[in-house]
Amino acid sequence: MALQEELEKQGNFLFVYRGHLPILFFIIGAVVLYFTRTENLIFLTPFQDQIYDLLAFSVSLLGLFLRAYTVGRAAPNTSGRNTTEGQVADTVNTTGIYSIVRHPLYVGNFLMWIGVTLLTQNFWFLMTYIFLYWVYYERIMFAEEQFLRKKFGEKYTNWALKTPAFIPCFKKWKKNELPFNLKKALRQEKTGFFLLTIVMFLLNIVSQYSEHKPINFLNHWTFIALLGLISYIFIKILQKKTTFLNN
Prior knowledge:
By secondary structure, the chain is mainly alpha-helical. The chain has helices at 3-16, 21-36, 46-73, 104-118, 123-152, 154-162, 182-210, 220-241. The protein has one domain (3-188). The chain has eight helices and no strands. The termini are far apart.
């Protein structure tokens, strides 16, 4: 099998199972945090440590915001969470966020999980994450682009030639053709926010345990996790009991 076909095959396989990556990443991060937390602490005071935690969480929120913005501005049947059926696209998004980068959702994913990685305060784990993320998602991006090239031909290639794959070029910005769909963004990204808050809450528990401290639940991570849980339940109720989020 030629390398091009092999990369496409690998990318399609990884695309289907990309939702499992955060679970594996959390397990590895928890192990790294437990065994290296005390020797990799950057800050000496609890206040400085809290500020660092909130900055890391802000990076993750930036990634989540980018995902929500992308989803809310994308055309129907594009930029979704489809997994079992493979690639889906009814058109090529070329304006708004897609005018400055070809894969904004994966840029968002990168920022979300690099914020989690920063909580470990482990430089080598951070570097490993960046490397593995690139190897993993490079194949997914390759497979997606092969699919789009075959389906849309010149329309896709003309856009791809002038639009960066992963690092945005803001000077290429073109106004989005579609209004922002808040309901769509809430439907698709509610789980991401919930899981992000839970992962960071659990990592904080691991951190306290690794330092042989009494587990303290009265902190900012508990509040953030409760916010994630309440918002997830609220949106799920709206979806099941009302028609508010159905369009």
